[in-house]
Task: inverse folding
């Protein structure tokens, strides 16, 4: 919910700046030299073609920089994917204290009831979206609420069982389990269920000689994903990275040619 508020606030700022510029232009057409920054506006109006040519060069560069920082901005999911690619999969019986990756079957302790289909589960990621329809009836969705709820659970592999404290857990690359909608809202939920085979990255710790896994304080990561899904991701992620690098290189070459 907080992320949506930040995005909405940023959107209002951008729209406000555009409207302010448009209002200034209208007032400048009326009052001319009485307006502040008259000389700059006059210069732009008399050399419109030159400034438009520069804009055609600058705008793609600004767009590229924006996309680059958006893609590179660290998130819990990105940290999880980066760490799981470098960490070896450990066995529960031989876990050492610190950041670990384990793979095993989920064991439910205290059940939750999911908000959409009221299924019994270990935990869920739940979203509410507003449905907007254009004149052609095509639907678009805007998230207005999201939440993650998860009870403590265990993971079992062939060597043992370990407890997981789920505070701050992130569901990564997990598709929706159930979807429901009405005329104006869409409700989706992604569930963790008893018996699922999952891969988890977190911090192995112990208390009173009992081992457990919690969110890592340094990397701020406690993530879980399906074993099959992460295998596919690890297989095709290098191709995706190469494709993005190639597109970036081509765009930089195009910008360089336009500048010349």
Result:
């Amino acid at each position: 919910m907080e992320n949506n508020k930040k995005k909405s606030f940023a959107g209002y700022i951008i729209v406000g700046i555009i409207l302010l510029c448009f209002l200034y232009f209208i007032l400048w057409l009326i009052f001319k030299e009485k307006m502040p920054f008259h000389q700059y506006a006059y210069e732009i109006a008399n050399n419109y073609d030159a400034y438009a040519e520069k804009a055609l060069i600058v705008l793609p560069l600004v767009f590229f920089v924006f996309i680059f920082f958006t893609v590179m901005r660290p998130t819990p999911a990105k940290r999880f994917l980066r760490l799981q690619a470098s960490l070896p999969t450990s066995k529960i019986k031989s876990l050492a204290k610190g950041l670990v990756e384990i793979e095993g079957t989920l064991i439910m302790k205290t059940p939750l009831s999911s908000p959409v289909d009221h299924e019994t589960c270990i935990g869920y990621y739940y979203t509410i979206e507003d449905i907007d329809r254009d004149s052609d009836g095509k639907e678009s969705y805007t998230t207005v609420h999201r939440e993650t709820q998860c009870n403590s659970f265990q993971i079992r592999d062939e060597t043992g069982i370990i407890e997981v404290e789920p505070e701050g857990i992130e569901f990564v690359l997990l598709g929706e389990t159930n979807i429901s909608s009405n005329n104006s809202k869409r409700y989706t939920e992604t569930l963790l269920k008893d018996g699922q085979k999952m891969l988890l990255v977190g911090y192995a710790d112990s208390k009173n000689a009992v081992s457990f896994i919690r969110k890592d304080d340094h990397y701020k990561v406690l993530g879980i994903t399906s074993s099959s899904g992460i295998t596919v991701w690890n297989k095709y992620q290098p191709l995706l990275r190469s494709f993005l690098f190639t597109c970036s290189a081509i765009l930089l070459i195009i910008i360089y040619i336009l500048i010349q």
